[in-house]
Amino acid sequence: MSEFTHIPVMMNEVLQGLKLHDGGLYVDCTMGGAGHSEAILKNCDCRLIAIDQDDEAIAAGTKRLAPYGDRKQIVRSNFSKLAEIGQELGIIGQVDGILMDIGVSSHQLDTAERGFSYMHDAPLDMRMDKSSEFSAYDIVNGYSVEELTKVLYTYGEEKWSKRIAEFIVEARNKKNIETTFELTEIIKAAIPVGAREKDQHPARRSFQALRIEVNQELAVLEKAIDAAVGLLKPGGRLVIISFHSLEDRIVKERFRYLALDCICPPEFPVCRCSKKQEVKIITRKPLVPTKDEEEINPRSRSSKLRIAEKI
Ligand SMILES: C[S@@+](CC[C@H](N)C(=O)[O-])C[C@H]1O[C@@H](n2cnc3c(N)ncnc32)[C@H](O)[C@@H]1O
Fold first, then answer.
1. What CATH number corresponds to the domain at position 123?
2. Out of 103-107, 126-130, 165-169, which region has the weakest mean confidence (pLDDT)?
3. Which of 28, 41, 244, 298 is most buried, judged by most C-beta within 10 A?
4. Cα–ligand 1 centroid distance for 32 (angstroms)
């Protein structure tokens, strides 16, 4: 495995947002290269549970967090199973702070053979969890024009989604599409040169969309937020960094729902629902990286950070 390189995003905002304190118990649901995880362990005398679904992240995090002995526990899993993990570890209602830094790591993007990037030629893959049997290959060679169009349009906001989908199906009728560069060429052919976005690779949106579909990144988020709130103790904080407007919308809307004390229709004279407010929203607007951070780490550019506190 190549060295794990990933610059953690909005570090100060994360550490402050989690309200770190000695004796606390924290959960990092997306350990990646363990940049945030290590900073949590360094900044207070706490315990940390660090989760990731990617074997390479688990290997890198295990090495990096080794000096922290039994203050840390590393779990290889999908954070969609957060409620089960919490149950197994006996930490329901016990956690002081939870971090989700969702999306892909620089290491995943930059490791050519994982097939995440249109910049490297590799088999179509994009699985964060290599034990999963579903990869970008299955989508590109198996989805119908309608299904492909929907994925590219919804997750990539790709204006040319239908045309790209048609070009993909036409190409694969001759021979299966095996590699990232084969796919990139098909996408390039589908988007007229004059219509391409300035300073953007024509395959960027489609690759993002395929990655989100392969890893079901949006589908697991809402359930994971609810499970995270279940793990927190009163006053515990949930900090979420997202990189995609659809992810941020899910976070914003779920926080809003969890912050409501009643969901009865307005015409009801008295409340008849059993909804109780579970969190208070700390960030009315999402925090974004400073200009300095964006310059040092251009990949931080689209990130947004939201915080909720369990009541
Ligand atoms: C942006 S990186 C996190 C980087 C990390 N905060 C650091 O400081 O190095 C996202 C990581 O989350 C993992 N990940 C994404 N979705 C996940 C999920 N549903 N369950 C578990 N891990 C996930 C990815 O495998 C990746 O390693």
1. 1.10.150.170
2. 103-107
3. 28
4. 5
Q: Which two tokens stand for residue 202?
A: 């024509």
The answer as to whether 291 is a domain residue is yes
With a 6 Å cutoff on the Cβ, whether 128 touches ligand 1 is yes
**Strand ordering across the sheet containing 279-281:** 72-76, 47-52, 25-28, 95-101, 232-242, 304-310, 279-281
Q: Show the domain range for 136.
A: 118-214
pTM here is: 0.94
CA atoms within 13 A on the CB side of 187: 26
Q: Is the CB of 33 under 6 A from ligand 1?
A: yes
> What is the per-residue pLDDT for 218?
93
In this structure, the answer to whether residues 61 and 123 fall within a common structural domain is no
Q: Is 184 in the pocket of ligand 1 (CB under 6 A)?
A: no
Residues 172 and 304 in one domain: no
Q: How far is the CA of 51 from the centre of ligand 1 (A)?
A: 8
pLDDT band at 191 (very low <50, low <70, confident <90, very high): very high
CA–centroid distance, residue 113 to ligand 1 (Å): 18
Yes or no: say if 130 and 55 are a contact pair by the CB < 8 Å rule: yes
Distance CA 157, CA 294 (A): 23
Angstrom distance (rounded) from CA 35 to CA 160: 37
Are 13 and 41 a contacting pair, CB within 8 Å?
no
CATH code of the domain containing 49: 3.40.50.150
Provide the CB-side half-sphere exposure for 37 (13 A, CA).
32
| Residue 186 included in any domain | yes
Last residue of a domain, one of 171, 193, 214: 214
Hey, is 30 helix, strand or coil? coil
* Residue 2 belongs to a domain: no
